[in-house]
Amino acid sequence: MTANTIVIIGAGEAGGQTAITLRQNGYEGRVVLIGDEAYVPYERPPLSKAFLAGEAELERMYMRGADFYPENKIELKLSTRVERIDRAGKSVSLPGGETLAYDKLMIATGGRVRKMTCPGADLTGVHYLRNIDDVLGFRSQVAAGKNIAIVGGGYIGLEVAAVAVKRGCNVTVIEATDRVLSRVTSPEMSAFYTDVHTQAGVKIITAATVTSFGGTGKLTGVVCSTGQTIPADLAIVGIGIIPNVELAQSIGLALDNGIVVNEFAQTTDPDIYSAGDCTNHPNDVLGRRLRLESVPNALSQGKAAALHMLGKPEKYAEVPWFWSDQYDLKLQMTGINDPGDTIVIRGSMAERKFSAC
Ligand SMILES: Cc1cc2nc3c(=O)[nH]c(=O)nc-3n(C[C@H](O)[C@H](O)[C@H](O)COP(=O)(O)OP(=O)(O)OC[C@H]3O[C@@H](n4cnc5c(N)ncnc54)[C@H](O)[C@@H]3O)c2cc1C
To answer: Which of 33, 164, 232, 324, by CA, is between 20 and 30 Å from 337?
Structure first.
């Protein structure tokens, strides 16, 4: 390894893990970790679970305590957005005109929430959930007696529904397809989770899109394509993310639903790596390329990139896995669900203890 400055754009799980792995493996050069959020790298899963429920302190979500970075000579630049990469000159530009030269660069820019564009989408009371500030912006309003509409019946929407109904809110989930979790799991699992939520008091409306948010200045209701208007003090939208690929695109790196990388998280420029939600990567185990949104993927790709930079290549080729916490249920999922897969249930759905293979 000849590099002496490694710059990491994005201080999320992939970026944080890259910096940590570099130091754990004896890299002694300069490491600069740049993130546009105000927080040290943290884990997002509790945002829709324990942190939203008020059961996890902020610091418990940090990958490493704030002291870890100076102690390990990782230069952390928070609340700082990289605006430009100069690929020929091997540098990145920061606000205020500062330029940072790199030998190796990591782009770990993650994704941003997909936003609603229908009328009323800018009303006070319409929220999204991607980061700590998002949750701090609405958490206190998830309170007993509030009407909460959740747009999108994916993992995040359902996790928020579970927290909100437990807090005594009137919760309605509005899902565009004909079943919840349709993007990620089988009809049998969707039916199971629909039952779990319905029994807990959540209303689930499927095959319905939101046509407008109603209210004057402040949200009062959500109008659906079915003609129903759901009374709402708060709407929380969880309809997926858009990978942040614009920096990579601006310097001509290959893109294909994400930044194209190899099994070592290396982009089409050998000095530039990319890891996490923003990448499209090959997976030998599955025999195809894919873009994943999961913590294990972000961590393993960050690790693979750092090791490759250090000349200790270790292929990233893992079976994807995910989890979701809703009520007292823990869902663990490994592999990718494809439409038309045959499902075999082992155990008892009625007792809520089973595997779906
Ligand atoms: C509410 C919620 C719950 C989740 N629950 C689970 C779960 O239970 N299990 C699971 O496996 N996964 C879960 N995920 C997904 C998981 O958190 C992500 O897959 C993971 O965080 C991806 O990490 P990342 O580093 O690739 O991207 P991110 O975490 O998005 O980090 C990228 C960082 O880069 C910053 N950035 C972007 N552009 C720039 C720039 N130009 N300059 C500086 N900084 C920039 C972003 O602001 C962000 O801080 C959840 C996600 C959310 C939002």
So the answer is: 164
Q: What tens digit of pLDDT does each residue of 131-153 get? A: 999 999 999 999 999 999 999 99
Structure tokens given for 71: 């102690």
198 and 127 assigned to the same domain: yes
140 and 227 share one domain: yes
For residues 273, 275, 281, 282, the Cα torsion angle rounded to the nearest 10 degrees is 90
State the total domains in the chain. Answer: 2
Alpha-carbon distance of 95 to 110, in angstroms, equals 20
**Residue for token digits 């319409």?**
126
Residue 56 lies in a domain: yes
Chain mean pLDDT for the chain: 96
Sequential DSSP letters for 69-103: HHHTTEEEE-S----EEETTTTEEE-GGG-EEE-S
Q: What is the DSSP string of 138-206?
A: HGGG--TT-EEEEE--SHHHHHHHHHHHHTT-EEEEE-SSSSTTTTTS-HHHHHHHHHHHHHHT-EEE-
Q: What is the pTM of this model?
A: 0.96
Structure tokens at 168: 């005594």
Residue with the smallest CA separation from ligand 1 atom 38 is 109
Pair of tokens at residue 173: 């989930």
CA distance 68 to 264: 26
Number of separate helices (H) and strands (E) present in the chain: 7, 25
Q: Is 143 inside a domain boundary?
A: yes
Say how many Å lie between the CA of residue 113 and the centre of ligand 1.
Answer: 10
Under DSSP, is residue 351 helix (H, G, I), strand (E, B) or coil? coil
Whole-number Å distance, alpha carbon 319 to ligand 1 midpoint, is 20
Q: Tell me if 293 CB under 6 Å of ligand 1.
A: yes
